[in-house]
Write a structure and sequence with these properties.
CATH architecture of chain A: Alpha-Beta Barrel
Structural class of chain B: alpha/beta
CATH superfamily of chain A: Aldolase class I
Number of helices of chain B: 17
Shape of chain A: globular
Oligomer: heterodimer
Strand order of the largest sheet of chain A: 5-4-3-10-9
Number of helices of chain A: 9
CATH superfamily of chain B: Aldolase class I
Shape of chain B: globular
Number of domains of chain B: 1
Distance between the termini of chain A: 47 Å
Structural class of chain A: alpha/beta
Number of domains of chain A: 1
CATH class of chain B: Alpha Beta
Largest interface: A-B, 35 and 37 residues
Radius of gyration of chain B: 20 Å
CATH architecture of chain B: Alpha-Beta Barrel
Chain lengths: 256, 386
């Protein structure tokens, strides 16, 4: 299986996971391990950047795990750029998951501010991974602005509603020159598999694992689904036909 | 249009009758809608007719809360910094007529309190500063200094003080203010003056429009609520829900949270609630607010009993206080200050026991949900770059 690269970073898995909403840091770390993920996103606002004994960060000190700080909580491009610089300094990574959602209810990403911040951060040497709507034109604009990948949402964050934006994801995947990571809304392993079969390069899952009855088992289920979906994509899924193939082709007269 | 004008469309007495007349069929119709129901539907959920549906409401509330907030509980600690008050609120221990010792902590004393909280060994990162209403003793300048002082120790500062002007809030945000709690006490305009006979707080409209001023200032979070038991708690809950819905749709960059200051009947002299409530009623309120809004933060203080607080950990609450002392100076020298307290807390367990109770529900305590560096003021510099 070809390894996914985002910017200069090689990913050991196509499943990225989040760290919020878990019942304990121990369960979180076990779920991360079971998921096989190599890229784990953490909210800057949740971790103690001043000390070096943050519980969550300590639980995530696992071999092969790269941290993906996110800017959740910022409301505009200026705040996002500042937060990203802080994350780079504190965690020593150029990876940044750019999240600007001033909307406090549905956490909808702000396209205008995200595009602006993406440009600034890319120029400043960051590997920018922007979380955005499944908007094909915005994805192209972000690509132009230097995004290392695009992270369109499948459904409202935390909703577990799956690929509600399916038709737009299809267009984004079809025309993207950077990896496409479906972020937010994926609620079940089958939905993750569907995204991968469509040709998504990776998916990011948090709530569906954290809030599952058994988060560790669910993390494993997502790992298997993402691998299966990607394998199916690589194998080339057979086209779906509306009807059986006609036994007497309409064009057979050409052979007469 | 402010909330004062907006709310004129609803009449207190009419809503009271609407709530009293709701039927079981109405409740079932609303429950079938799931979460994010309208304020009118919320009114049905706090009606007497909905009481037999408490188990079903609790189930729906728990499920929606898990989906949105996960298995986590945020903890914060209140810090009372001044109990001078010029108001005459007839239900309050800080009432200016009460002959109690009055104190405003100096910045050195506030720092000592912050250190005492930290020395207790729990990584609190969210603090709530509380004062009485006395601009002479605790004005905006004093609040700004106090926020600066506690920001050395905490990442998230909330305040529960007198209502201020928009420009004051903007100034305090530059010092790192994150959240403001202002409770309306009662939304019943006609009866509000009975409880607030004198002092600046007598101005119902100025208090009611505080959330508008906060929204205009761009505050991160606004906390609302009413003093449960003062007036018909069901009708007051409807108007609180209306207020939440108004804030969420007008000031969409601002988060909303709800608290439940509740008057309980007590023996001896003192103010008795006109509309006493039970823990069952309170749970009906908590679950109804969750069904009103799946992203609403629901906060429960140490006014409630350990049994109740432990019981509702999974049922909709997202935030709790712990280890609270309600007297200025109470953390560093309780014996000296205990006479000054505003109310005696009901859940006076040490923080470690509350943490254990939360963990026993298979929940993670969240101490930190904000980083001071994310505040607007810190990024103003970077915002000026083209």
């Amino acid at each position: 299986m070809e390894q996914l690269k985002i910017g200069g970073h090689t990913m050991r898995s196509r499943l990225f996971v989040g760290t919020g909403k878990f019942a304990s840091n121990r369960v979180m770390a076990e779920a991360v391990a079971a998921s096989g993920s190599g890229l784990v996103t953490v909210a800057l606002k949740r971790i103690d950047l001043k000390g070096d004994n943050d519980d969550m960060l300590q639980a995530l000190r696992l071999p092969g795990i790269e941290l993906l700080p996110n800017t959740s909580g910022v409301r505009d491009a200026g705040e996002a750029v500042f937060a990203a610089q802080l994350a780079r300094e504190a965690l020593g990574t150029d990876l940044i998951k750019l999240e600007i959602h001033p909307d406090q209810r549905h956490l909808m990403p702000d396209a205008v501010e995200t595009l602006k911040a993406c440009g600034e951060l890319a120029k400043d040497g960051f590997t920018v991974m922007p979380y955005i709507h499944a908007d094909p034109v915005l994805c192209k604009r972000l690509e132009d602005a230097g995004a290392a990948c695009v992270m369109p949402l499948g459904a409202p964050i935390g909703s577990n509603k799956g690929l509600a934006t399916l038709e737009f994801l299809r267009i984004i995947i079809e025309q993207s020159n950077v990896p496409v990571v479906v972020d937010a809304g994926i609620g079940t392993p089958s939905q993750a598999a569907a995204a991968m079969e469509m040709g998504a390069d990776a998916v990011l899952v948090n709530t569906a694992i954290a809030v599952a009855g058994d988060p560790v088992a669910m993390a494993l289920a997502f790992k298997m689904a993402v691998e299966a979906g990607h394998k199916a994509f690589e194998a080339g899924t057979a086209p779906v036909r509306e009807s059986a193939s006609a036994t007497s082709p309409l064009t057979s007269f050409l052979n007469d | 249009m402010t909330f004062y004008e907006y709310k004129q469309r609803w009449d207190w007495d009419k809503m009271t009758r609407f709530i009293e007349k709701a039927t079981a069929a109405d409740v079932e119709r609303v429950l079938a809608k799931g979460v994010n129901v309208s304020p009118e539907d919320f009114a049905v959920l706090v009606s007497p007719a909905a009481a037999p549906y408490l188990e079903e409401m609790a189930r729906a509330s728990a499920e929606a809360t898990r989906r949105r907030f996960g298995r986590t509980m945020q903890l914060y600690i209140p810090l009372y910094i001044s109990n001078f008050c010029t108001n005459h609120c007839i239900y309050c221990g800080f009432n200016c007529k009460n002959q109690i010792g009055r104190v405003t902590l100096s910045q050195e004393q506030i720092e000592r309190e912050a250190q005492a909280i930290q020395a207790d060994g729990h990584p609190f990162k969210h603090i709530l500063l509380v004062t009485g209403e006395s601009p002479k003793h605790a004005g905006v300048g004093y609040m700004a200094d106090s926020i600066d002082t506690v920001s050395k120790y905490f990442d998230q500062t909330s305040i529960e003080v007198q209502p201020l002007d928009t420009a004051d809030y903007e100034l305090l945000m530059e010092h790192g203010l994150h959240t403001v709690c202002v409770y309306q006490e009662t939304y019943n305009e006609a009866r509000y003056p009975l409880y607030h006979p004198a002092g600046r707080k007598r101005d119902y409209r100025y208090r009611l429009e505080t959330a508008d001023r906060l929204g205009q200032a761009g505050i991160y979070k606004v906390g609302v609520g009413n003093l449960i038991g003062l007036e018909n708690w069901r009708t007051d809950a409807f108007f609180t829900a209306l207020h939440i819905h108004y804030i969420q749709t007008r000031y969409w960059r601002t988060k909303c949270s709800i608290s439940f200051p509740r008057l309980r009947p007590f023996v001896g002299e003192g103010f008795q609630p006109n509309y006493p409530t039970t823990e069952r009623d309170l749970l009906q309120l908590i679950t109804a607010y969750r069904l009103l809004s799946e992203d609403l933060e629901i906060s429960l203080s140490t006014r409630e009993s350990p049994r109740f607080r432990d019981g509702v950990i999974e049922l909709g609450v997202t935030t709790m206080s712990a280890g609270s002392k309600t007297a200025p100076g109470g953390y560093s020298d309780w014996e000296q200050c205990k006479e000054l307290e505003q109310f005696s807390v009901n859940d006076d367990r040490p923080v470690s026991e509350i943490v254990d109770a939360i963990s026993s529900h298979n929940f993670e305590v969240v101490w930190k949900d904000w980083d001071l560096s994310l505040n607007r003021n810190t990024s103003k510099l970077s915002r000026n770059t083209p």
